[in-house]
Specification:
The protein is of the alpha/beta class. It has one domain: Rossmann fold (3-Layer(aba) Sandwich). Helices cover 19% and strands 24% of the residues. It is built from two helices and six strands, in the order E-H-E-E-E-E-E-H. The chain has a four-stranded parallel sheet with strand order 5-2-1-6. A two-stranded antiparallel ribbon has the order 3-4. Strand 1, helix 1 (16-28) and strand 2 (38-44) form a beta-alpha-beta unit.
């Protein structure tokens, strides 16, 4: 079984459960002992701390432009998506 890269995008005002739950589910999933089907990581536009809903500070592991190539890109919801939909940054 090949390990798949799962990138979870975070941004200011991201919904906490929107990225934490998938992070946990993908991170603990395994079919057999010592088998890791998913390499899960948090990405953002910048490496500075992201302030999620209710002022939770999150430190991304990678910038979008320099992260390992994802097989799966998860974009969580939240109030911050309204602003990010207009983000013109090219990746």
């Amino acid at each position: 079984m090949q390990t798949r890269n799962v990138a979870i995008l975070v941004f200011d005002d991201v919904e906490v459960l929107g990225f934490c739950e998938p992070y946990e589910v993908f991170g603990v999933t395994s079919g057999r002992k010592n088998l890791k089907p998913f390499n899960v990581y948090i990405v953002a536009e910048h490496l500075k701390p992201i302030i999620a809903r209710n002022q939770l500070s999150v430190n991304p592991q990678y910038r979008i432009k320099t992260c390992p190539p994802p097989d799966i890109l998860l974009v969580p919801g939240g109030y911050g998506t309204r602003r990010e939909m207009q983000n013109q940054v090219k990746t």
